[in-house]
Amino acid sequence: MTTTEHPARRRAGSDANAPGRVRRRSRTRGIARFGLVTATVGLLSGPAAAQVGTFSDVLPWAFIPIHSSLLPDGKVMTFGAKPNDGQGGFDFDLWDPTKGTGPDSHLQLPNVLEVDSFCAGAVLRSDNSKLMIVGGNSNERVTEFGYKNARAGLTVMPSMTYPRYYATVTTLPSGQTLVTGGSPSYGNQTNASPISEVLTPGAGWRELPGTENSPMRRADMATSGNPFWYPHIYTTSADEVFVLAGRYSYYVDHTGDGSIRDVRPVTGNNWGATSTGVLYRPGLALQIGGGSYGNNTPDNVPGSDMASIFDLRPRIATSRDTRMRFKRHWPTAVVLPNGEVLVVGGAEGNNTLENVAYAAEIFNPDTEQWRVDASMQTPRLYHSTALLMKDGRVLVGGGGAPGPIAGRNAEVYTPAFLLDRTGKPAPRPSILAGPVRVALGQTFRVQADKTIRRMTFVKTGTVTHGWNTDQRFFEAAWTPAGDGYDVTFPDDAINATPGLYMLFAFDEAGVPSEGKYMRLPSPTGDDGTDIPSDTPTSPAPAGTLGGGTPQGPVGWARCASESQMCRFDGLRTVRFGANGTYATREATNEILCSTDTFGRDPVFGTLKFCEYQTAADPAPTPEPATPQPEPTPPAPQPSPQPDVPQPTAPASTAGWTRCASENETCRFEGVRQVRYGANGIYATRVMVSLAACNTATFGRDPVPGTIKVCDVESAGAPAPTPTQPAPQEETAGTWARCASENETCRFEGVRQVRYGAKGVFATRVMVNVAACDTATFGRDPVPGTIKACDVASADTPAPQQETAGTWARCASENEVCRFDGVRRVRYGIDGLFVTREMRNTAACNTATFGLDPAFGRIKICDVESAGAAAPTQPAPQRETAGTWARCATEGYMCAFDGVRKVRYGIDGRFVTRDLRKPAACKTATFGRDPAPGRIKVCEIQMAR
Question: Which of 166, 555, 643, 922 has a CA that sits 20 to 30 A from residue 299's CA?
Fold first, then answer.
C-alpha cells in the first residue's frame, strides 16, 4: 500500500450535538509523560519461554462461530449461524472457559425475538457493558444481551433507520456509538446505507445526513470494493474517525449532521472485505492481507501478503508496508497481551482451499518484522473468527456458510510466552488486588503474588469477518509502591475509548497473569454498573482455565468421519460419537467408523466421527454397563390441559441415560420417557425421537436456580397423542438424488422430497429448495444412519389446505399473534394443532398453549376468523405472467428504488401491496399468508 496523506483535523471547540464532550489530549509518543518509560524490546518473550505457541485439538461447537465476543464475566458469546451450518443467526452459545471444553461448559440460548444476527455488527456498550447487536440479515433492528441474566436472552433496543448487513460499530471517545456501512440483505454498493447513524446513551439514534456522499455507493462492486462491507474504522480525534472502506480511505466527522472529507483511493492490494486490521498501538493501525470485495468473487485475485502500518497520529497520516510469509484472503488479526499481533487463518484462494495458510504469523511492533508460528489443523476461511480471551489465549474458530468446509468447531491458541522451553504450561503470576473501575489518567494500586516487571492494557473485543473494532493495546506506566505497584491508566481519551479493559502483569520470566478486568465508564449516559470482581484467589498455570483440568478431546486424535476408515498403529482405544458423547472400542491398526462397528449410536441424528487415544494417555475408562429397563409406566390419559408433572423422588441412575444438558436437544430412538431436572428432582414427559431440554418443553422448572439436564429412559414408553406418521417405504424409479445429509436439495417448482436411507423415508412437499436434515422433515426416519434426499421426478400437486376463510396465519413460532377481541387461536403445523381461546394477543409458543403438538417441528399460529370481526382481507390474486420479476425468496429482502407494486405468494396465489422502500418478503409485511404451509416468493411489477 503506497503512502497516503490525510490532513487530519484535530478540531477544538464544542458542539451541542456531541454530549459527553471529551477533553483533547496531546498525542505524545510512548508513555514518557507518565514519568516512566518501560522499554518493550526484549520483553516480548521471557528467557524460559518456548519458541512457538501451540494449537489445541479441534473442539466441537454448537454451530459455526461467525461472531465472537468476550463478555464482562469472562465468558465467550458466539453466534451468527444455524446448528445445521446454514446462514441465519437465531442461536447463541455461551461458553464458560473456566469449566473447560466439555458439554457442561456451554449454554445454548434460543433467540426468542427472531432477530437474525447473521453478519450483524456488534460491540460491548460503554455505558452498561451489555453486548449490543446491530442489524444483520435483512433488518435494522438492534438488540442487547446482558451477561448478568444470561438466560433472559436478548432484549429489544430502539431500531436504526436503515437496514445494515455487514455494518461496523465503533465506540467513540464520548461514549456514543457510531454505525457505518451495511446494506439490505445480500445488497451491494447500489443499495448500501451511505448515511451513518449515532447512538447516544439515554437519547437514542440520530442520522448523520451529511455523510450521504460517502463512498458507499460509488462505482460498481469491483471498482469501489464494496466499501459498505465492514469498513475498518479508528478514532482520530473527539470529532472524527478514519475509515478504510473497500478501495477508499476517508474521514467522517460525526458531530452535528456529520460530514465526509479527504476521500482518497487505496492503491495497494491489501484492501477490502477479505482483509483484516487492528489498532496495535495508540494511533498505529495494521491493515493486513485481503484484496477482494467479497467472498468467492470471480476475479480470482490471490490474497495479499502485504501488511501496511497506518500512522494516524501526525497531522498528515502516512502508511508504510511490511510483508508476511503467506498470502491471505480472510485472515483475522489479534493483539496479544505482550503487544505483538497474531494473524491466523485465510488462504491464497478467496474462500477456497488453494494454498491454505494453516500457520499463524506474528508481528513484532518493535522490529516491524513477521515470524511464522504454530499451525492449525483446520482451514479458517470466510466467516472464521479469532478472539483474545481473559487468560491470554486465543479462541480460533468458524469458517463456512458458505465455503469448502463447515467450521462448526474451534481451536485454542496458546502463545509461546505462556509455555516453558519444553512446551508445558509455565507458572503464572496472579493479580491479587485491583480496582474494577478506572478513569483516564488515574493511578491505582495493584498487588501480585510475584515480582512484576511489566504491565499492559488490552481492550476486550467483538469480532466477525476478520474485523474487531474495539481491540487496542497500551503499555502501562507503573512503579513499585509499598506492598504492590502503582499503575496509571492511559491518559488518552482518543485511543482509550470507554469500555472494558484487561490488565496483564508479567513476571520476571516474561509470563503474564490472567487479565484483570477494569471498566472505563462512558462520559455520556453511563448507568454506573460495576463489573463483577475477578480477583483470583490463587495462580493458575497456562494451559488450564481457572486452574481447572482441561476437558474435551485432550489426548485424542481425530482419525475419520462417520462411515470412513480410522487407521492408526498397533492396539488403540477408539471412540465414536460427537458433542462429548461416545461409544468406545479397542482395535488394532484400523476400524470402520460406523454404528454397526461400535454396536450402538451414541448421538442419534447427528453426524459422528472417530478418534483414537494417543499412546501417552492412560488406559481408557470402561463404559458403564447397559442400564436395565424399569417397568413400563402406564400410558398418560389424554387431557385438553397440559400435564403438570410432580417432582419425582431422588432416584438412582439405573434405567436412565444422560441425553442433553439444559437448552440442548435430547435425541433418541422411538417413543421414550424423558426427565428434566437435577439433584434427584425431575419433571417427566413422554416424547418421540427428540426433546428440547428446557422448561418450556416440560411445563415448569423442577429445580429453580439450578442448571438442569435431561435423561432418556432406556425402555420404551406408550406413544403420545398425536402420533407421528410412520416412515414410508418408497418405490424406486421415480426419484432422483439431490443432496446428502446436511446439504441443500435444489430443484424447480413444487416437488415431493424424501429424506432417509435403506428404503425408509420421511416425505414432504417443498418449493425450489429443501435442507436435507431432520429439522426440515420433522423426524429422523433411520436413526444412526447417514441419510440422503431424493426429489420426485414429476411436479406434485400443492398440499391440501384448510377451508378458506376459517383460519388466518397470524404469527410464526415465538412471534406474537395479534387480533381484535376474543378469538380461538391454534398452534402447530401440518394438521397437528393445540387450540385455545385468547383475547387480543397470544404468544405463539409451547408455554402459552401448554404442550408441543409437533415435537421438533417449527410451528405457526392461526387465528379463527369465524364468529369474530376479523379484518377484511383481499382475496388471493391470480396474476398474469410476464409483468413480474422475482426479487426475493420468503425471509429475505426485496430491494428496489422508489414506489413499486410488490406481490407475495406462490403458484398464482398472491397478496399485493404498494411499497416505498426495500421490504422484507414475509407475511408480516403483507398482512397475511396467501398460501399457508408453502415457501413463498416476492416479485416486483416491472415498469410498462
Answer: 166
The residue type at 850: G
The whole-angstrom separation of Cα 461 and Cα 456 is 16
* Cis peptide bond upstream of 402, omega within 30: yes
Q: Which of 88, 163, 191, 217 is nearest to 925 (CA)?
A: 163
The domain spans of the chain are 32-418, 556-613, 656-716, 728-792, 807-864, 884-941
How far apart CA 492 and CA 470 sit, in angstroms, is: 15
Spatial separation of the C-alpha atoms in residues 100 and 737, rounded to whole Å: 42
pLDDT tens-place string over residues 180-216? 988 876 666 677 788 999 999 988 999 999 999 888 8
Range of lowest pLDDT (184-188, 431-435, 937-941): 184-188
What is the C-alpha to C-alpha distance for residues 150 and 240, in angstroms, rounded to an integer?
35
Using CA atoms, how far apart are residues 275 and 269, in angstroms rounded to an integer? 10
**Higher-confidence residue: 816 or 618?**
816
CA 459 to chain centre: 20
pTM of the model: 0.58
Buried b (16+ CB within 10 A) or exposed e, 134-146: bbbbbbbbbbbbb
Please list, in sequence order, all residues whose beta carbon lies within 8 angstroms of the beta carbon of residue 149, skipping any fewer than 6 positions away. none
DSSP assignment of 613-649 equals E-TTSPPPPPPPPPPPPPPPPPPPPP-SSPP-PPPPP
For residues 833 and 73, give the distance between their C-alpha atoms in angstroms, rounded to a whole number. 42
Please state, in angstroms and rounded to a whole number, the distance separating the CA atoms of residues 344 and 387. Answer: 11
The three cell numbers locating residue 457? 492494557
pLDDT for the residue 12: 32
Residues 6+ apart with CB under 8 A from 909: 876, 877, 878, 930, 931
Summarised one tens digit per residue, pLDDT across range 880-931 is 444 777 777 676 677 777 788 889 888 788 899 888 766 777 887 888 888 7
Q: Using one digit for the tens of pLDDT, what is the confidence trace for 292-344?
A: 998 888 888 999 999 999 999 876 777 899 999 999 999 999 999 999 999 99
